[in-house]
Structures are given as C-alpha cells and as structure tokens.
Amino acid sequence: MKNYKILALAACLLTLAACDKEKETVLPGGLDASKPAVSSFSYDEANSGETAAAFTWDATAADAAGATSYTIELTTDLDHENPNNASIIQIVPAPATAQVIRGLKKNAFYYARIRANYEGYYFSGWDFLGSAEKPLAVCVGKGASEASFGAPQNLAASNVNDHGFKLAWDAVAFCNSYVVEYKPATSGTWEVIEGVVNPAYEVDGLVAATAYDVRVKAIKGETASEYTAISVTTAEPSGFDPHMGTVEAFMAFMSGEAANASAVSEFTLEADIDVTGKEIATVENFKGILDGKGHAIKGLSLSGPLFQTLSGTVRDVTFEGNVTKTIGADETDAGHPLALLAIISTGNVVNCVNKASVTLNAAAKIGSPVVAGLVAYQNGGEFSGNKNYGEIKLVHAGTINAEIEGFNRKPFSVVGGLVGVIVDATASGCQNEGAVSVSCTDVPKVEARHYVGGVIGTPQGSRVIGCINKGAITADFTDATKSAAKQVWVGGIIGGRNGDEKTVDGAYVENCENFGDCTLIAENSVNNYLAGIGGQATVEATGNNYTSDSSTIQKIVNCYNHGKLTKKGAGGCRLGGISGGAATLENCSNDGDILVEGISTAGAVGGLVGYPTQPYHPVTGCKNTGKMTATCDVVFAMGGLFGQGGNTNQNYADCTANCVMEAPASVLAGMILGTAKTIAGGKAIVYGTAAAPFKVGGSVKGVKLDGSNFTSLLVGDGGVTAGGEIDLSNVVLE
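RESULT FIELD:
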C-alpha cells in the first residue's frame, strides 16, 4: 500500500520556490515537523449516520502550541495522483476535538486523516485513522475497518417471486461500480448489466418456477475482481386475484403483492375499502399499475407513505384518513420527507384524490423536511388531474439542509399541497383545497430556506399547467428575537424556485389560478417572498430558456390571483400579486387584496411583482385591480404594479393598474412603482410604448387619479433615482 503524499498546497509552494531561484524568494509555510500533531484520531460511531461520518481527536498539544485549525481529509485512494481518487477536505477552526462530515454517500469507502494547521501556512504531520502503515477505511453508514478491493462477498437473493428477485451484497472497498450478470441455468447466454453503483440490484421480467445462475463482480478503473456466483429459482405463480373488492384482498396486496409486482402487473379496486384499525407497512417500491376505478381507500392511519418509491402507475384512487409523524429529538443527519402516496415517484400519478391530513411535527431541529399531500418528490413521469383536500402541515423547532436518499440533490424545507419537489415533469390540471402551513417554534435554529406552495413547494425544469389553489397558505415564523433565519418563499401555486441550479430551477407556469389567502409572518431582515402564483416560480437571471421549446421558457402566462396576500411581522419581503421576485409575465391579472401589517424598510410590494430586479423578464398585458393596504408606519416601496425597480434596463408594455392604495405617509406608494432609487446612471426602465401604453386609475393615499394629478402619483418617491432614468411618457389615464 502506497504512502500518503504531501498535500497539493505544500507541493505547490515547494515547486514555486524551486522554479524561482533567480529571485531567491523564500515562500512561507509548509510541513513543519516540530509542530505538534493531532493524536488519537478515532471514528465516532455514536454520532455517525447513514450519510455522515463523525470523528474525534486529542488536540491538547496542538492547541497549546497555537494551532489555528485542523484539516480532516477523506480520500478514496492513498495515491493522490490516481485519477480515480476522490478527496473531501474539511477545515475545522481550533479549538476543536470532534467533527461530523455530512452529505456522504451511503456505503462509500474513505481513508481518513487529520493534521493541525498553524499561522504562516505551516502544518503538522498527519495522524491517520488506524496508522500510516495500516490505515483503516470508513464505510459510510457502517463503521471503520480494514478494507481492500476484492470480489463481492455475501451475495444473496431476497423477495423472490414469480418474475424476479432482489440481489444484495457487501459493498466492495473503493470500487467504482459493479457488473451483474444472470441467465437461465439451461442457457449459455448471460444478460449483462454494467455500471451498477450501489451494492444491490433488482432483477425482473423472468420466467416463473425457473432456475437462474447469477454472478456479480466489482470494477475499479481498469481492474475487475473475480465473480461471486449463486443460483436462484423463481417462485410459482402466486394465484392472487388482482381485482380487489375486500379489505382482506387489499391488505394482501400491500403486504406482499405490491412489492413483488412487475411493470406489467395490473391491480384494480372493485369497491370502496375501509382499512380502519389496520396497520399498513410502507411498500419499498411499487412498479405495477393500481387502478382505483374511482373507489376510495378509507380509514388510513399512517406514519409514512403507502410506497417509498413509485415507479409504476396509480390512477383514479381516493385516499381518506391521516398521515402523522412525530419527531421528538434533534434529527439532522438526514432529511425527513412525508407524503401519503409516495416519497419518490418516477412513475405516474393520475386523477388521484387525497382527503387525508398529512402532518409532520418535530419538537426539535430536523434535517430537510419535505411534506406534501400525495408525493414528496416527483422526478419525471406524469402527474395530472390530482386533487388534495387534506390539511398539509409542518411544525418544527428549526431545520438544516440535509440529504434525502433518492432525491437529485439536497432539498431545503418544503411544503406543497400535492407535491413537495418536482423535477423534469409536468403537473397539469391539479387542484388543492386543503390548508397548507408551516410554523416554527424556535426560529433562531432555522438554517435552511423554506418553500411553501398550494400545489407545489419547489420546481426544477418543470411545467405547471392549469392548476388551481383554493386552500389557505400560511408560513408562521413569529420570532421576538428577530433572528437572521433563512429566507421563506410562499405562493398560492408554487412556493419558489430552489436557486441552486440557476438555469433550470423553476417552471413554466400557464393557466393557473389562486383563490386561497396566503399569509407570511416573518421577523427576519432577509428578503422573503410572498405571491399569489409563485413566491418566485422562475429563474431570476440569465438561462431563462432551459430548452429550445418555446412552451418551456420559464415564465408565467395567463395566470390569475384572487386570494388575499398578507405580510405580518417586521421582516423583509418581496411581495407581488403574481410573483414576489423577478419573472416574465404575460397576460396575468391580480384582483386579490394585498395587506401589509409589518415589513422592513427593504420591503418591496407590487400589485404584480414585488421586486423585478433583472432585465431578462418583460411584463406584458398584465393588470392589477386588487386593493393594496399598508397599516405599518414604515418607509418601504409599494407600487400598483411593481414595488421597487432594480438597477437594470427593463422594458414593459400594455399593463394596467387601477386600484385603491391606502398607506401611512411614510410609505413610498405609487400607482405604478414604489421607488426606483437604486437605478444608477446609464440604466433605464421603460413603462409602456406608444402602441401599448400603460393605463392607470384608482387612488393613492386617498387621492383619486385624474387628468391633472395622475403623473405625480405614478412613483411613490416622485421618481428619485441614483442617476438612471424612468420613462413614464407612455402612461395614460384609464
């Protein structure tokens, strides 16, 4: 086994010094063997988890010598020049004797070491998990042990049915992938599956009552291990009647047939089925077809979903009852998804109705709660014609961003009436009538953003078409300490776009309508978002077109808000009748009331858009007639169409603002715009064109717009800018 090499920083310093002999420059830093190193570096099993590895160490001598920090390195190969090597480095400020490294992949192997760092870029030698001569490897989720690349061990088959079985084996240290091969025992031709990442594989589509040979090998770069082989015989046909009309038949389906179904297995409900008092365990993966034929499954009392993963189809089923999960202690290593039908769906959910309440109640801080009526995470597949009438509720005492196995990346804290997170899919013809809410009992412990939507919590690269919300949407972050908690996005249809993948996070939104009242209570000074359609439903900056198909350009088209929007608490907010943040709008309308009871001086409230910050989002053919009221005596921006203009060139056309605006004298209230004070020299915002002018009417602070005064009431602060230009020449009285 090769020794560890000096870190890249030290190597670079030494190389630079050698190459610059003419100047005789002496560069500081590097390995200093006289500096005390860390000792007793150990794996902390008690504080590790399925996706986290915890370590402890003795830093007594290093702390006494003035160590400023400690570097922990996890590496997949002792040879750092190996192209297959992957390295994770964490810097831990001194003093410290423990650290948890999160977000690791379950079953992945790493060697681990630690060093002390000192002023002047000097560092001690390494202390290894194990020793330099015989380092131990950590298998994430299992522990530390000696490890070496070799053939898979303990290969076994489970869930053997009449059309397949599940294979599992021990993870092989540091392998890149596995190859699974199988064939009928009487055949000479192997079916070969390459690139299997996890130490498990499900074989399907086989012949009943047939013996099969199975073998698995591990791959590391160009090297392949020896095979490990077993024989498996598929079961006789089950004889189960897939047309279910009794509770006994449905319970048999959930306890065995659902997990063993193939992609062509079809089951139907022939009557309403009442499962009151029955204990139903979650099925790991349903690959078949469940057709409810309009019937209901009643009396559900669950602590988790019916299916962990849905890769098949569920259609025309109504669900009644409740899903309730309670967490009593801090659980932050992994995320906590909860929904009635499925946590992860890559399949199809069509014309399903949820009448069950879904509640996640955490008395302490938790990792990434994702709560939804039907599906926590919809990745591809069809999601159409679904309805939710149940109350969807999240209560917690703080959150942190954490991994959820099977999600495409770490989610934040998400609540959606029907879907929590939707990726690369279309939600069409869906409706929510249930109350959707999140409340926090310990706001200073909130370390993750929140997305709260009547239909969808947060979308990525998706389409939301013809969806309706009639439920009340509430996010309550009441906090007397006014902590610097993370942002909250609230929307009648969509909470907000995630923001990590800036060119695809968000959705194309068309023909959606919100009737539900949306309320945000926030005391923190950050920019929260609240809107009738989406807190911010589309990407904000460039990358507005994530495909060449014009129907998937991220924008909001033909959408309407009728619900009342209320902001409470002294926290910041970008509030809009349609969108809180920058968005392309076409033919959208707001007639819902907007009430601001509390907000910060950075607040921006618009009848259409709260803060249109970017030049990439034209607004055309849109209208606001909703009453706008501020009861707080705060200097913030409130406009009949837009709250505050951003420091970019912007062009808008054919929009109308005709509403009643009531506010104290301190509020910067204008029928088009609250303020444009951030527009710097060389930038211009153009409201209307000669062919498509802006039209205004109504009143501002008790003054009715007429031919003699309306131009003075268009911008709340009279048109103050930082040197830019506001073009109001094409604004006319309606």
